[in-house]
Design goal:
The protein is mainly α. The protein has two helices and no strands.
Length: about 100
Amino acid sequence: IPLFLPSSTIDLIQNNKKLLDFEFCLRKAEVYKCLTTLRRLLIYRSHIYKFKDRHITGQLMSTWVRSTIKSVIDNIDEAADRYCKLREHLVALVGE
């Protein structure tokens, strides 16, 4: 079931200003949350690389760390994609 928020139907219907303002606040909060998540994941990835360089020796532990790093990088990519989509919605709401 598609959800028709004002940003997705901005060209189709005349929107209520109050509704647009409400969605703008919602999207803005989501963008900040997404950026915070992205920052946290980047710091975590940096920490894992430093930990690996200092403490990890041997094939088994290196494999474990590599798989952990890969999952963190996948999460970073997902957060970045989500941020891009949210930013598109904000730009559509503002009308730039």
